[in-house]
Amino acid sequence: MKVLRDSKALRRALEGFRKRGKRISFVPTMGYLHEGHLSIVRQAKRENEAVVVSIFVNPLQFGPKEDYARYPRNLARDEKLLTRERTDFLFMPALKEFYKPDFQTSVSVKKLSRPLCGATRPTHFTGVCTVVLKLLNNVMPDTLYLGQKDYQQFCVVKQLVADLDFPVKVKLAAIVRETDGLAMSSRNVFLSPRERQEASLLYQALKEAERCIKEGLRDVEKIKKAMRAKLQGLRHGSIDYLEIVDSGTLESVIELKRQSRVLAALAVFFDRTRLIDNALIKV
User: Fold this and answer.
1) How many CA atoms lie less than 13 Å away from 5 in the CB half-sphere?
2) I need a surface site. Which of 19, 62, 70, 123 has the fewest CB within 10 A?
3) Which residues are paired to 170 by β-bridges?
4) Catalytic-labelled residue, pool 34, 37, 124, 236
5) Alpha-carbon Rg of the chain, whole angstroms?
């Protein structure tokens, strides 16, 4: 595995692959890798000749009172994990080089960034779009892989790529869960034992939405009420949002239509740790 910290060196390293017609895949991360990240790397490796993974904790997608400073980091461990997966390239740009002191540009996708996480994190997706655009310019991959746990991010980035005519395919990778259903996340490390036990309720609420829809319930408010009932055991957590939206537009729905596909999504705070999860459900 080649470890690169300079964008020019990365482009030079990838040029040989590109000239030989090799397909290049890209998995952007913020590090502190877990099995969810690694499963995406494996998928990218199966489907392409070269895999580039980036590790960059992007300050632009954190609000002023969010957890940028305390976001977990362990680059040595991450490097070992990616070497074990036979990753081809690891790109770890330095903050001061990636964003020069006079950096002024931002990119945003307006409509898809407003609901769900965007309602309480209004600058988050502008930061996501800006960093993804810069990373795509550096890597120039054939395929970009994003995890379903950040489904809104997938929708926003897919729109960004389409609107700006980037010649890259955006693929969605499945959520990887712990044995009790909790979606794997770098932030799970911050949970206390009691919070960790309660965090499994997020998945139970999503499964309740699936059960209600499978059994024929079509009133969204009743489905959300059933989901909230599953979260009554939260003693150390508070709900940020709990929604059922159209899986394409992310707009709220009132009554489910046959053969549609919806997203049940929620976010819960445990002290300063914010966990998100979702389920794509076909009606």
Assistant:
1) 5
2) 19
3) 144
4) 37
5) 19
Judge whether 124 counts as a catalytic residue.
Answer: no
CB 278 within 8 A of CB 250: no
Q: Map tokens 């929708």 to a residue.
A: 155
Tokens of 31: 């590090």
Q: Are strands 2-4 and 273-282 parallel, antiparallel or unpaired?
A: unpaired
Per-10-residue mean pLDDT of the chain, 283 residues long, equals 96 92 97 98 97 98 96 98 98 96 97 98 98 98 98 98 98 98 98 98 98 97 98 97 98 94 98 97 97
- The structural domains of the chain, ordered by start, are 2-173 (3.40.50.620), 186-282 (3.30.1300.10)
Q: How many CB atoms lie within 10 A of CB 98?
A: 18
* Residue 51 phi, psi dihedral angles, 5° rounding: -125, 125
- How far is Cα 178 from Cα 18, in angstroms, rounded to an integer? 37
| 3-class state of residue 246 by DSSP | strand
